[in-house]
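<context>
A single protein, sequence plus fold
<entry> Chain with its tokenised backbone below
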Amino acid sequence: MIREFQSTLDYRPLTNAEMIEDHRISVCVRKRPLNKKEINKKDVVVVTVPNKEGMIVHEPKLKVDLTKYLENQNFRFDYAFDETVDNEMVYRYTAKPLVECIFERGMATCFAYGQTGSGKTHTMGGDFSGKTQDHSKGIYALAARDVFRLLHSKYRKQELIIGASFFEIYSGKVFDLLNKKLKLRVLEDGKQQVQVVGLKEEVVENTDDVLRLIQHGNNVRTSGQTSANQHSSRSHAVFQLILRKKGTKKIHGKFSLIDLAGNERGADTSSSDRQTRMEGAEINKSLLALKECIRALGRKGAHLPFRASKLTQVLRDSFIGDNSRTCMIAMISPGMSCCEHTLNTLRYADRVKELGPAGPDVKPVDNISPRNAPLSPQNSDLVMIRTINEEEISDEMLNFHEVVNHMQDMEEEVLDDHKAIADKMSKWINEDKKLLKMAEEVDYDVEGYARQLDDLLAKRIDALANLRDKVVNFRLELQEEENLSRNIKKGKRPPNK
């Protein structure tokens, strides 16, 4: 049936001769070829790329009388890449047009999105030969090559230096991939600028420096197991090239290249394992927040719900300003075995840009709060996203995300207080030694000793009691999350994307 339908199509695939269109937001889709595993299982290709912007998914279905039929679902994007296209050509139409804007004080962002195993890491990181990856042929390296080319030619008089940072966002937490996976705090300063505190930035002078950092970071990136891939990327990896004027710390421009976590993991919020639930909840939330932040980029004056997830929070400066540009490359697997995930990916990519500059009618957040208590800025943005995506976030799922947000805030508070107590303990030991030394004297002041010891113990008991109260409340919050996740499992599962 599929071949019969394909024979009726007029094929006009994308070529290198096409004019590159100028988009502030560009959404492209790349179809990979069948892999060896799929070929051995005799998987059927159900995706066709008839022209430079079209993609068709042939979804096999059954009628009530069990008659087979084909439902052909059409999608349209800025560019559609078939399985014959190499990374160089994908780069030419996606990230390459963004490079120059960072020299003009702009922020450029390139996202790789899709199911685990759909080709994200291949596209961003380079071609694989067995388990060995040629990093020189990925979008990271190709973008770095053009950044250094422009730095030493057209913009050589601007006296710019280039720094690089590489971090991952895993389960709502940020880890520095260039500094022994150090856990970092994300804070908002008085000017509402988001700072990743302590993030290591290394000066890079050529493409080889960039490749060395990428290889190092990828080696320590969090991976796990899903049904799609035994080494699924469970984290969002964010690599940034930062331009600064020599002698200053002020950012001149920034290019962020993001390899997003496998989108199939967003459905893992119903898992029996808490860590898997936390991963799934964060991925689900961050992908929805990302979609709305990109859409807001195309609507001047629209509220930017960046606080809804850690990913959009750290990328806030990429979504503001008239000179911000974004491209999303959605990767899809071609086989029938991945048809559901492929459709989810295409629908998500389609919604990123479907509304154009007009944007959706967003209800005021105050009118849609599900609780009487005031909402935190994070949950306020989450509720706004829910109003725009009502079919994708149920009331139970919204409540679950709010509880998870609160739980993560409490976790940070407990950890901070625990560290503070641990730091105080060395001071307490010194105080004890000083007091005991006083008591060794023949005619020491017994009443003074008892009074000082009582004061010391009272302060310590207060500090430990406060920490204990927070730990008790934190454990109650963990139990509430557990109970909510069970209700989600019993109820209807929300759509993936």
